[in-house]
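Encode chain A's predicted structure.
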Amino acid sequence: MTSAALGASPAAKGGAAALGRALRHVGFLPALLIVLIVLLVLFEPRFMGMFNVFNVLRNSSALMIVASGQMLVLVVGGFDLSVGAVIALTSVVTAKVMAVMLEASPDEIPMAIAAGIAAGMACGFITGLINGACVALLRISPFMVTLGTSSIATGVALLLTNGIPVYGMPDTFVKDFGRAIWFGLPMPVYVSLFILVLVWVMQRQTTVGRYIHAIGGNVQAAMVSGVNTNFYLILAYTLCGMLASLTSLLLTARLGSGQATMSGNLMLESIAAGVIAGVSLRGGVGRVEMVALSALFLSILTNAMNLLKINSKIQTIFMGVIVVAAVALDQLAKRRTRDARES
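Encoded structure for chain A:
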């Protein structure tokens, strides 16, 4: 028996080594995503239902967009706690502007839609601009700035609605934009793919992407190299705010109403998606394609818990555990890297 055990040991070691090489080649996150999908296909028949697949695609598309913006802020060494509040404020402002415009001029539907979208995107632009200016110019902690703007945006959204959903948007905006199916897929899928491609090109092919990574890696070195760090910090936060507003437009069009409580856990999930994807909390590291996979993983995981009828409060706890574990692993990896360099 001892010789058999000894004979099996090299085979086991070889199998473990092969598994390790496969994980390094494919990546841990894609492998985890594949395992999760296979398990759900095998043990939960409802997962592959058309309605459920569309639901996962819509939810993951929204998370991918807002997480892409969060990634940009994480890469420059900050984070944005206001994205959830921006989503809520954008939803309310968009719906109110469209409803008012449509009531005043019932025949000017395109004008009402354009005005509502512009007003909604302005919410994200202004909030992101304020966040970036306070962080870059006033040197205020990103935590305090974005926490403050989150409170302000949430308060304004509630003040405008008294917590009551806003209806009266054009049917064209809801049916042809929010709930449309294009070439067999929900419209938000195409919007998210378009945004992901734009962010990928910006990261890999443009000076803006290189400067954003340089600032996150070493802001002092970037300044010495002649990079306008204040401008690119403000740009990162502004883009994050605008992508949050775009996410809100998709969600508002899908629901058919503006809601001050729309954001749910998107702020927490956007940070979780970034950290799980390997975006460093210290800045300088982050790939949008991995963030997209992470967002898809979290959306499928949430969908699986819903299919299994797990209590929503327990789901919130579970999401918090995932964030803490991801941050802890990130810090552990950084410590090991630092110790390896010092040795």
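The domain at 27-40+47-333 is CATH 1.10.3470 (ABC transporter involved in vitamin B12 uptake, BtuC).
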